[in-house]
Amino acid sequence: MLIPSIDLMGGRIVQLVQGEKLRLAFDDFEFWIERFSRFPLVQLIDLDAAMRQGDNAALVEQIAKRLPCQAGGGIHTIDRARQVLAAGARRVIVGSALFSAEGAVNAEFAQRLAAAVGADRIVAGIDTKNGRIAVKGWRAQVELTPDAAIPQLEPHVSAFLYTHVDGEGLMQGFPLDVAARLRKLTRRQLIVAGGIRSQQEINALDALGVDAVVGMAIYTELLAV
Fold this sequence. Notes:
This protein is an alpha/beta fold and 225 residues long.
């Protein structure tokens, strides 16, 4: 399944390279909402909230009411997760809050969150940079691999989102061997992102039982949707 992404920063839809360099920015929300309206799921990320430099909460709410979204970025508390779900999101993506600074899985928080909103409405973000899980808008890392984190989080979530930060925005392809390895670790939905550039690649991931988030290839018209 192809899942289009909408990343928000400074009140605009943006595309960044490796989470740092701004490559594209758009203000025409109606155009993209209409374009993505036929998809069963859209990924909506508040980058400002993820980087702890403000938020785009009003935009998240507006878009989540009109598109079937899984929304993330800066969701660190149960209250915030509830707010995003109440705003219309189908699921919340939670990343940094699931991990401690010491590199451990915060299973206690994951369990409380699942009890509060339902495991079926939680996607665990296991974004990875240089083989280690990246947190705080990808600006920090913990000494933990996704392979170690997935089994511990499995009981508390409905899906895993793995972003290959090293390839994010570069459109150089996603490492299929990584997708195959992670697929074996969980029975939950597995979604991957980072560098995906073609329908053939999406088909190859689908054959593995993996869904694909695509941003840059759509916004640059490399991939027609």
